[in-house]
Amino acid sequence: MPVEGSLRDPVLSVRSVTFTRDQVATYAETSGDHNPIHLDDDFARTVGLPGVIAHGMLQMGIMGTVAAEAAGGPEKLRRLYCRFAGMVVPGDTVTFTAEPAGPGKLELRAVNQRGEAVLTKSVAEIES
Amino acid sequence: MAGRTYPPVEFPIEAERAAAFARAIGADPEDGVPPTFAAVYSLGVTAPQLFGDPDAAVDFSRLLHAEQEFTWSRHPRAGETVTSRGRVESDVNRRGMRLVSFETQTTDREGQPLCRSKALFVIRS
After folding, report:
1. A57 vs B: CB within 8 A
2. Is residue B88 part of a domain?
3. I need a labelling partner for A91 at 20 to 30 A (CA). Which of A15, A103, B10, B65 fits?
């Protein structure tokens, strides 16, 4: 009998994203988070940043997309937790991984091109 | 500030905005409202109440979003209007940094729970 996509077991899901200024600006627009540290290099430097940085919530959004893919659909997500451990700047490539880790659980990782974790201790709980 | 609550905020979940948000996070808009649209309908509508509260005195330019958790009872659909209530769970100083834990409960029209958001903000001194 064919198994519906939504009934399947969770699978490993991986996605690499190279962040761009446009993408960060689009996230600012659609999320309503217009904090200038994400949009204005000069402002970002005045508060001690190297320039504009991506929203932590943009990273978490992509992580959520990858977790939903692993779970078999966004409606399966019950809990999502992320710790924002490192900055992501335009040009960085981050690899997001969601891996089944026991019943109803996904282990989440986000690592940049230098091998540094940008999200740590991140997990998802899913409907099993 | 611990225990301070803010007035409920109503937010209509518009299909178009949810779809634009989905595209911004690499999700398929056909899959419906992305779970992390809670960044908008839950955290996004209540956090500004905290940041704009003169008693809370949050220095926005020194603010870092350190941790975020969303827990869903049910995912809202486009066309629903949801209500979110923010509350300061704790507000402590540690090693020269101020840590504010901010919780938001989002419910549907019938008052049934949809999402709980827990944000940890760090304000550097």
Report:
1. yes
2. yes
3. B65
